[in-house]
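tool_call: predict_structure(chain=1)
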Amino acid sequence: MASFASLPAKGLPPKPPDKGSFPLDHFRECSELKSEYMGCLKQHSMQIDACRDLSASYLQCRMDRKLMAPEELERLGFAKKEAAVAVGEGDQPVQIEEKKRAGFVAGMSKANK
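tool_result:
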């Protein structure tokens, strides 16, 4: 029979978030941007790619108002559009947007061979 003597009385200790605290927006300083972003998600069937600019604006608002630690947007996954280039077969640069429009699925070109 297992013993619970090795576990702390209150359970496992909480683990802090990777990026530190993320305070709530009590004064609703960025709520307009958040509402626009949520509306965009609803309008585009929850496809986040269509709303990336609004998402970046919302995070920038939070950083500007000290509601989250300042961080470069590139480090949060918002690469500049000019830099969003993938390397295709033969090392020819191919725009990611062109692949998306063509119905690209990662790994399928290798699977079909």
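agent: The chain has four helices and two strands. Proceeding to next step.
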